[in-house]
Amino acid sequence: MGLMRKAFLLAALLLRTVPAAALEVVQISGPGAGEQAAPEPAAPRPPFAGEADLRETLKYLSMALEYGDKLQADRLEDLGKDAARLTGTLKKAIGPELLKEAAAREKLAEDARRSAAAQKALADFRWALQVNYGENGGKYPENPASLAGGKLKLVPFLLLPDHEQTSDIKISDSKKSYADLGKAVNDDGGWLYFSNPESEHYGLLLINCRHKSPAGTEFYKY
């Protein structure tokens, strides 16, 4: 099924439209009004040779992915071989430059998705810590993993850009204070937690990563 999915994505890339920008001069009434450029919906581009056939192929590739579990095994095997051939043909037609552009665009979208998920996981984890702190007389747990099965179902997983998925927690029990918390980070892509009550960072939970999010902020600074 992986080959059919790849063929589906490549066919979709080939059909992707890039609208041309169009501007219209409009008159704005009121004090100090003048002419201002306003966008106008771009005219639809004319169909290219073979587009109808490609769209039909895309339609049936989509159906094969949707109903794959209902198809006979021998038919699926044949479809996989055909999809592999189609994938090679599509990649050759699209060319390396457009494939590289599409891969970069997909990575940006995936990185943004991972970043948003990590920030939500951080907010949820910190919320559980604060509730636990209030319920335990102003004390944080020695290890926030102890919240799993209580305030949290489990220790939240992180899947950061350019990292593998992990829920590992690095515990810092040092009294040392960091003017730059980045110096405490070892960039393993998991969690960093300060457990020493004598540390000014006591109870602080960070994302253990120095990489920048798509927004340009190092993950440990969230």
What would you say this structure looks like, in words?
With 222 residues, the protein is mostly helical. It has two domains: 1-13 and 49-94, no CATH class; 112-221, no CATH class. 41% of the residues lie in helices and 9% in strands. It has four helices and five strands, in the order αββαααβββ. It has helices at residues 2-15, 51-66, 73-94, 96-135; strands spanning 23-27, 35-39, 169-172, 191-194, 205-207. The strands form two sheets. Strands 3-4-5 form a three-stranded mixed sheet, with helices on one face. α1 (2-15) packs antiparallel against α2 and α1 (2-15) packs parallel to α3 (73-94). The protein starts with a helix and ends in a 15-residue tail after the last strand.
How are the elements arranged and paired?
Elements: H1 2-15, E1 23-27, E2 35-39, H2 51-66, H3 73-94, H4 96-135, E3 169-172, E4 191-194, E5 205-207
Parallel strand pairs: 3-4
Antiparallel strand pairs: 1-2, 4-5
